Amino acid sequence: MSKNEQAYLDLCQTILEQGNKKQDRTGTGTYSVFGAQMRFDLSEGFPLLTTKRVNFQLIASELIWFIRGDTNIQYLLKNNNNIWNEWAFKRWVESDEYQGPDMTDFGNRSLVDDAFAASYREEMNAFKQRVIEDDQFAEKYGDLGPVYGKQWRAWQTSKGETIDQLKEVIASIKTNPDSRRHIVSAWNPEDVPSNMALPPCHTMFQFYVADGKLSCQLYQRSADVFLGVPFNIASYALLTQLVAHECGLEVGEFVHTLGDTHIYQNHVDQVKTQLSRTPYALPKIKINPALPSIFDLELTDIELVDYQSHPAIKAPIAV
């Protein structure tokens, strides 16, 4: 059994047994602990969960979206990636221009009202199609504001200049590997209150070089353990492998440090189902050896090898 995956399963069990029952912004309610940490030895394999199927293509295309500095869901939709739709859709249905049926609390209502669920699907599909086909509409309602990609690649300074944090940190790893400043931050206090569709949950990460290996630690302020965290683990493990590839290093550890670490109350049954399953061996990642730079990355440059998993487990997203 993979120690990597067991770290995640143990965290789920701890939250179910010891979590504090709390209310939250979405009105769903959570079971929460504070200050958890998981460590993943990337030499053991790629930490994509096997106790439920996780869509690697969604993780890879989202990471490429971040790396490119993009903040508009149009690229994601064109790559059949729907993981950010709800936040953009929420902006659209709350706008003065929207004239369709009432979509208030669409995430929860669609679970208990079949007629509403059909209406929601129709409105969401129309929204997605319009974002894909209408660049002007996409620019206004497909953009999520200065979320991860913008902060990683074009952090706005008080002087009106921009900082390409990701490019600078890669250059620093190459030229000064022992530095303690290999840090990228997505948490920009000026942008959080009003400009972002969703304030960054994974707020900052730091690289560390030792013995020819690259490790990464992520601090995540808010962690949706069932739906979000499996993606976060795989995304930052993949980012670590890509940066190591570019810098000519082997991979070390991915260390995942979490603040408010929670399971939504309407995810408990799904978590229990996952905990009843036995993990498979972890898959591996192959990166195109001819890839000149992480900034030239395409989906075809990454291959997931030998992924075996239990079936996916569906659960509602809290928006």
Automatic annotation (TrEMBL):
Main location: cytoplasm
Sections of the chain in a coiled coil: none
Binding, (6R)-5,10-methylene-5,6,7,8-tetrahydrofolate: 55, 224, 318
EC number: 2.1.1.45
Top-level taxon: Bacteria
Pathways involved: Pyrimidine metabolism; dTTP biosynthesis
Top enzyme class: transferase
Reactions this protein catalyses: dUMP + (6R)-5,10-methylene-5,6,7,8-tetrahydrofolate = 7,8-dihydrofolate + dTMP
UniProt protein name: Thymidylate synthase
Organism: Natronobacillus azotifigens
